Amino acid sequence: MGANPSTVLILLGTFFILVALGVQIAYAVLFASMVTAISIGIPAATVMQNLVKGINIYSLMAVPFFILAGEIMMQGGITDRLIRLSKALVGWIRGSLALVNIVACLFFGAISGSSAAGTSAIGGIMVPRMMKEGYDGDFAASVTMASSVECMLIPPSHNMVLFALAAGNISVAKLFLGGIAPGVLLALCLGLYSYRVACRRKYPKGDGFKVSEAWACLKESLPGLSCILIVVVGVIGGFFTATEAAAIAVLYALIIGLFVYKELKFKDLYGIFAKALKTIAIVLILTGSSACFSWLIAYLDVPSVVSRLLLSISTNKYVILVLINILLIFCGMIMDMAALILITTPILLPIVVKLGMNPIQYCMMMIINLGMGLITPPVGGTLFIGSAISGIKVEQLSKSMLPFYIIMMIACMLVAFVPGFSLFLPNLLM
After folding, report:
1. What are the extents of the domains in the chain?
2. Is the pTM for the entire model greater than 0.70?
3. How far apart are CA 110 and CA 108, in angstroms?
4. How far is residue 286's CA from residue 223's CA, in Å, rounded to a whole number?
């Protein structure tokens, strides 16, 4: 069926009205899909069939397991060890605590894959410590929030699994590999800027680098980091699927937390499973609702309409990519990341593929953009977490984040226009 402007207006208009009224994204997506389908004579049963089909996917099981594994590892004592390892590696440089923050988020991304979790776990420890040692509070919170975007790029990331589901026929292993270089690139950009600020403001530096201390911290952190190596190497090497790897990660995380680090007790498991289950339920409902929405998007041929609209503005590839980046940041400012991955991918991916962009490269570009949205007002969830941790008003943090937005945009443009950052490792190893 060709795109009917009035039908598309019903679909998108109903969705945005419900979101503005405060309805949760998952239910807004589902209700908008139902209303649109009924308005054009599609039975409601067809919509529900697409909902069931959207969650009846074997590879989707990886997402709940990764969420649960991350929750177990966050409670199992790995966070403190990662911070100590980061301090041993970069603590001798001026502005060391800011750099420790950035490197710790890089490591932590291999555990949680969540910007909010990274800000809560790393920021809860580092922001008060930085403020105590003379760092400006707004700078300490800003560097934490900006660094938390690294968490979504470093594998294993459940957001990449969701992208693979939304895009179809995309290798999760290649996505995992594709996120490593952009994550490190973002960390380097943030680190260089933070070092420049530290020199200008005369922030303190730690003691000299000690190989023995670094080695001791590495050995202490290795059991936790080995979980990530097992998962990533196993998936890339073809030893097991992403779903099997996620299940292994849960088992391994339990063993490490309960019997190696011994900071996790059996009585803690109920709370961990309950918290993970709440997140998993939200993701699964959203995935099913988004499957209905995506089916209608394809049925109404919306990608072609959006493509023609963008081409009417400019036929230049780079101008269109910049417009798509702006659109993604704007959407990320007002909506949840998982929802946007599931909803926008069927619309925008065909357009960027026609422009010659590899889907893996697009995934990395999109994650950085949506990550920036999470730390941008008015709805950015990570921004409010940073405000709560630091005790600084959102308005002041938004102002202090301005240079970090610029740095992150530079990193995003490098990923968007230099395919090698995202594709070098997948092409080399697979």
Report:
1. 5-429
2. yes
3. 5
4. 34
